[in-house]
Amino acid sequence: MTVDEITKLHEATLQFFDLVPNAEVSIEIDPRVTSREQLKVLRELGFNRVSLGVQDFNEDVQKAINRVQSVKMTGDMLKFCRELGFEGINFDLIYGLPLQTRDSFKKTVEQVVQLKPDRIALYNYAHLPSLRPHQKIMDKFARPDTEERLAIFLDGYQEFTDHGYQSIGLDHFALDTDELFRAIEKETLYRNFMGYTVKRGAGMIGIGASAIGEIGNSYFQNIREAKNYEESVAQTGMAAFRGLLLSPEDEKRKWIIQQLMCKFILRFSDFQSRFGSDFKVEFESELRKLEDFSKEGILNLTSEGIAISELGRLVIRNVAMVFDAYLNLPGKATYSKTL
What we know:
This protein is of the alpha+beta class.
């Protein structure tokens, strides 16, 4: 996009939405194609946080995934973003990529630590060629097996926490000076489709092809193909092709999972106040399933609630899955895996 197009889109958006004072206005950028002129304009428009796609700094891995960018290119953009006043700058890293090894990713992590972004997201690569046909080309490259992926993640966890980063849930890290870390102490941390955020908004409106929205007790997704999306918007003004209304049971379980994954503590009294029922009675079978996690030091079960340990944060998704009523339904598709 040209800077004029960026400005025009931003101004058009603000005709329909107001920004509260000190709002976080963030954007994800690709260091390979984002220009300094674009960054300057974004900053002038009020954007104050950026996330840089990195994935991996190993050249062989970059060629395999068709995303070649040097450490210098990424570092120069990080430095320029800081000069412009962007804060909470994030790097996205991915483990489990083609040709990635434990030793090669150690080098990437060391390079990231030297650059020292404010936040780091360390995601597990999801290989889904049936849904994303462009991934089929990667089948010709070897990928780390389950054990090596786990080792890669744990190496990254150790290196980041050894160099001043705090673990934020299952796949995020932040310096203790960053707002994302402070959100844990404030108990405002929230997780949406894109990862952890410092707080929950009033709602999330997905604009663009395939975007997902979350409003109140509903979810909806836009048409995935760009051309069909544009045609639908032109003809009807809308582009959602499917949606879901949460049942009262869904809302309870969503709240439980958010408490565990974001606050790392669930107080039975909070559940009672919010839903007017006894957690220990309503989820008796789930609490029994958590006993094994308790024996392994992943969580602590008391008469007052569930508290996740530091170790437990690494496998918090596995704990949360106990409360997912849809996970084992016949014919239910799953699109990602836990550690």
